[in-house]
Design a protein that fits this description.
The chain is of the alpha+beta class and 249 residues long. It has helices at 14-23, 72-87, 148-153, 157-161, 167-186, 193-199; strands spanning 4-11, 30-37, 56-62, 99-102, 106-109, 112-124, 127-137, 206-210, 215-223, 229-233, 236-240, 245-248. A 7-stranded mixed β-sheet has the order 1-2-3-7-6-5-4, with helices on both faces. It has a 5-stranded antiparallel β-sheet with strand order 11-10-9-8-12. α2 (72-87) runs antiparallel to α5 and α2 (72-87) packs across α6 (193-199). Bound molecules: biotin. Biotin binds at residues 13-15, 37, 40-43, 46, 48, 57-59, 105, 116-118, 134-136.
C-alpha cells in the first residue's frame, strides 16, 4: 500500500479529517497524522487523551473489498499490526515486557492499555465506500493531567520501557506492519481471526457481556469467523459483537 501522510498540528479528531478526505475521494493509504487532538474519541463515546508532542494519533483511509460481515477484520488486523510493532522493539528493550490483545480493540503492554483502535465505516448497500482506521498509540504519553481512571488503566511505551522513543521511528514501523497485514485484508484475501485468536488474552477467561438489559456471564471460548467473541453461558453459547461491552470478571 502506498501511504500518503497528511500532517496536522492540532485537529478535533483525525477521524473527522480522514472522513472528510475520504468523502472527497482520497485514495486508500491516505493517513491523517496529528500532533494533538482536541476531541480525540474512543468507542462508546469515550474521550481519547491526546496531548501534544507525545504520542501517535492517526487515521488511515481504507477502501476495503470486504463483505460488511467481515468489517471486524479491519480491527483485528490492526491490533495484530500494533502487536507486531511492539514485538519489533523487544530486542532493544532494556527490560522484558508482555504484550496482549484484549477483545476486541485494546492492545496491552504489561497489562495496561497502550493503544486503542477505532474503525468507522461508510457503506452503500453491501459495499464499503471507505473505512477509516483510527489508531492511538501512547508512545511518550505522560498521564499527569489525565483523569484518574485513565492514569490507572493506560500506559505508554515510555513508561514501560523506561525511556522516551522516537515517534517517527514507531510510525514507520507501524505503517510497515499495517501494510503487511492490511493490504491483503483490503483485497479480501486473508482472514485474520485464526492468528488473532492465538494472540487475544480474553479466551478462556470468565467474562460479563453487558446486554443493555443486565450482564450475562460465561466463559470466552472462541473467536467466530467475523471476529465476534463466543461466550459459553448456562443458557448456551452467545456471541458478543463489536461494540458490545465485555469485561473480564
Ligand atoms: C478506543 O480504545 O476506544 C479507541 C481509541 C482510538 C483513538 C484514536 S487516536 C487517533 C484516532 N482519532 C480519534 O479521535 N480516535 C482515534
Amino acid at each position: 500500500m502506498r501511504f500518503d501522510i497528511v500532517r496536522r498540528e492540532v485537529v478535533t479528531s483525525t477521524m473527522d479529517v480522514a472522513r472528510e478526505l475520504a468523502e472527497r475521494g482520497a485514495p486508500e493509504g491516505t493517513v491523517v497524522l496529528a500532533d494533538a487532538q482536541t476531541a480525540g474519541r474512543g468507542r462508546a463515546g469515550h474521550v481519547w487523551h491526546s496531548p501534544p508532542g507525545q504520542s501517535l494519533y492517526l487515521s488511515l483511509v481504507l477502501r476495503p473489498r470486504l463483505a460488511p460481515a467481515q468489517a471486524g477484520w479491519i480491527t483485528l488486523s490492526a491490533a495484530l499490526a500494533v502487536l507486531d510493532t511492539l514485538e519489533a522493539l523487544r530486542p532493544f528493550a532494556p527490560q522484558p515486557f508482555s504484550t496482549a490483545i484484549k477483545w476486541f480493540n485494546d492492545v496491552l503492554l504489561n497489562g495496561r492499555k497502550v493503544c486503542g483502535i477505532l474503525v468507522e465505516s461508510s457503506l452503500t448497500g453491501a459495499q464499503f465506500d471507505f473505512a477509516v482506521l483510527g489508531i492511538g498509540l501512547n508512545v511518550n504519553t505522560r498521564f499527569d493531567d489525565a483523569p484518574a481512571d485513565v492514569q490507572q488503566r493506560a500506559t505508554s511505551l515510555r513508561r514501560e520501557l523506561g525511556h522516551p522513543l522516537d515517534r517517527e521511528h514507531i510510525l514507520t514501523s507501524l505503517l510497515k506492519h499495517l501494510d503487511e497485514r492490511q493490504i491483503e485484508l483490503s483485497l479480501g484475501q486473508r482472514n485474520p481471526t485464526g492468528e488473532y485468536a492465538r494472540r487475544v488474552e480474553t479466551l478462556g477467561k470468565q467474562v460479563e457481556i453487558d446486554t443493555g438489559a443486565g450482564g450475562v456471564r460465561g466463559r470466552a471460548v472462541r473467536i467466530a469467523d467475523d471476529g465476534s467473541l463466543i461466550v459459553a453461558t448456562d443458557q448456551g453459547e452467545i456471541a458478543a459483537r463489536f461494540g458490545d461491552l465485555v469485561r473480564q470478571v
